[in-house]
Amino acid sequence: MTTRTVDATQELAAFLRTRRERLDPRDFNLPARHQARRTPGLRREEVAELAGVSIDYIVRLEQARGLRPSAHVVEALSRALRLAPDERAYLFNLAQQRPRNADKPATTAAPPLARLVADLSPLPAMLMNHRYDILAWNEEMARLLLDFDSLPPSQRNAMWLCLVHPEIREFYVDRERVVREGIAHLRAAWAAHPEDQALTDLITECTTHSEEFARLWAERDIKVNGRGHKVMRHPGAGVIAVHFEVLMPLQDPDQRLMICRAADDESQLALDRLHAR
């Protein structure tokens, strides 16, 4: 058997049917029915009731009759069919809709990722969420940037530190570019996570207390920083240039792993000196 280009309408219909048929009606506290069930799983009318749509709508979807459900309907179907996160994402893709973030933003590091950050030594590495909250770091990153343990958790935010912290404010040689790109990333995250009140509060605070942030935020630049180059003035090791890479784990997509490596031989020697301390 060969699989050709996906026919999204047909696959959506088949996926909905199979997900409906695998469900156990006893798990839903549905009203008892006198007639025997001829097929496994929930009836179409039961799914329609759980999702808040008409029975005819479910029938037309399962018969691949050209409907394209809205994001609201896809979300309702995902809940009614008790889809796992990967299945939910698949249904949204088939419907050509963009899902809203169903999970709360990460506020603590996933333990396997925290261990990975430590294991990446001697490369400086840290873990952040989409709003630049710093969740985990290794000793090399702390020696390169800042002793994050000395900060209260509310201040462990890369954007806040760059704008406010006296050591980090003057840390980057090309400060204007670093701040501009950070704000462009934050604006993209803000659009992708409209439900994140903590992110909105962070942006409000930065706009209110930083003329620099307010000016650059108003320019509405958008850029997702997955890879780049930074040059830093380290108070103990001199000028250090690094390349950085940001990776997003499949199992924890709200957590971002940043790994730095020296951009030249002199910077590598400086990092080696920091590591040897």
UniProtKB/TrEMBL annotation:
Question: What name appears for this protein in its UniProt entry?
Answer: Transcriptional regulator with XRE-family HTH domain
Organism ancestry? Bacteria, Bacillati, Actinomycetota, Actinomycetes, Kitasatosporales
Identify the species of origin: Streptomyces rishiriensis
Q: Where is the HTH cro/C1-type domain?
A: 35-88
Q: Which Pfam families match?
A: HTH_31, MLTR_LBD
Q: Which CDD domains match?
A: HTH_XRE
